[in-house]
Structure formats: structure tokens, C-alpha cells
Specification:
two-stranded antiparallel sheet; single chain; alpha+beta; 3 helices; 132 residues
Length: 132
Amino acid sequence: MVRKENKFHEKMIRCESLKLDGKNHIIIDNGIIVTGCDWEEPVWCNKERKYLNDDIKYKRIKERFGLERAQNIVWLKFTKDGYLGVVARSFDINFDIKTSSGILVKQVEKQWDDSFVIIFPLTFEILKKYKK
């Protein structure tokens, strides 16, 4: 980042890729457009009060963006006709129709577009300035 006299931070723009499920996905600035992935739901253990497993894709995102926790992502999913269906924070991307967002989408007679999600990692720099 370049700091100028007036304390303006010049925006750092990047266009890179991240490999998930054997495919490259585009990173534009701090957002990732992820296409054609299957998302495994994390398994919570009440006894140990922690997640027993999570999808390796979240670990790769965590490592690439230097996240404190894999849960520090915001993700967006859409309906097949282009409506934003949910904005969520955590590492539980899914297209289950039994979730609250799935029930709402079904009630308005829409269907999930499970071909892509948009992910925004909440980096340390973001969380230092803003609340989730």
C-alpha cells in the first residue's frame, strides 16, 4: 500500500487465482468467485465444543488470506434467476433447502444457483477497522 501525505491509502487491486477442488477460481481484489465446487458441511462436536472437520477449501482460503479462523469469511449465494438469496458469515456454504434461507427461497418459488458462490475473506486488516 502507498501512503500519501493526506493519509489516503491507494487501493491495491489484484487479479489472481486460487485452486480449490482442482480448479482455478478468480480472486478480484479481496473477493473470490468460486464455481463448480461441492461444499462439505462442518461437523460440530458438542462434547469437545469444536468442529471436528471442515472442508479443505476453507483451510486454503484461510491460508491464502492470512485469516485468524476459517469462519472469517462472508459468502453470497444467488438464485437461478439472479436474485441474491443469502449473505452469510462462516464456513458452512451449502445449498441445503432445509436451512432457513433455503426455506425462504423455496417459499418464493425460486431455486439455488449452485454453480457458484462469491466469497469475501474478512482479513485482519478488515476486522481491525470494521465489525462483522
